[in-house]
Design brief:
The protein is of the alpha+beta class. The chain is about 20% helix and about 35% strand.
Length: about 150
C-alpha cells in the first residue's frame, strides 16, 4: 500500500463526548489492469459526529496473483456492502489514522469499522500492495467511547 496523502484535522477541542460516531466516505478506482496484476486508487474520508476530528487518506494499492483470486478480492462483501479490497486497505490506513489521532489528542477510528467475518477467507492467494476499483460510497457509523485526556 502506498499512501500519497494523509491529513488529520482537529475540528474541536472537546473530547468528553459520551460516544463518537464515525462517518466514512470512500472511493475506489481501477487505474491499471494486466495479467495477474491490478492497480487500484483509493480515497478515504472519516469524520466524527459530534464534529471533533476528520481524517483523509489517498493512495494506491497493487494486487498481484491469479486473475480469479484478484477478481474475488475486488468483489463486494454481501454482508458489509464494501469491496473486500477496501477492508484490507482500511486495515493498513487505520494505523496511520490511529497515530494521527494520538498526536491530535482526538478519538481514534475503530479498527474493525469495515471488518467482515469472510474477510479472512477471501483473497488468500493475492498479494496486496497499496494503490484504487470503481466508486463506492460507504456510510458507516461505529460507536466508540471517548477517552478523557488531561
Amino acid at each position: 500500500m502506498e499512501i500519497t496523502s494523509l491529513v488529520g484535522v482537529r475540528l474541536d477541542v472537546k473530547t468528553n463526548a459520551e460516544a463518537v460516531n464515525f462517518d466514512v466516505k470512500a472511493k475506489l478506482e481501477e487505474r491499471e489492469r494486466k495479467s495477474q496484476m491490478v492497480v487500484v486508487g483509493f480515497s478515504l474520508s472519516l469524520s466524527t459526529k459530534p464534529s471533533i476530528v476528520k481524517f483523509e487518506i489517498e493512495g494506491t494499492t497493487t494486487l498481484t496473483g491469479k486473475d480469479a483470486e484478484i477478481n474475488e478480492i475486488l468483489e463486494v462483501d454481501p454482508e458489509t456492502k464494501v469491496p473486500y479490497i477496501f477492508q484490507k486497505i482500511y486495515q493498513n490506513a487505520f494505523t496511520a489514522m490511529y497515530l494521527l489521532s494520538t498526536i491530535l489528542g482526538a478519538p481514534p477510528p475503530p479498527s474493525d469499522l469495515l471488518f467482515s467475518k469472510k474477510q479472512e477467507a477471501s483473497g488468500e492467494g493475492v498479494s496486496v500492495k497499496m494503490g484504487e476499483v470503481g466508486t463506492v460510497d460507504v456510510k458507516a457509523a461505529k460507536e466508540e467511547t471517548s477517552v478523557s485526556r488531561t
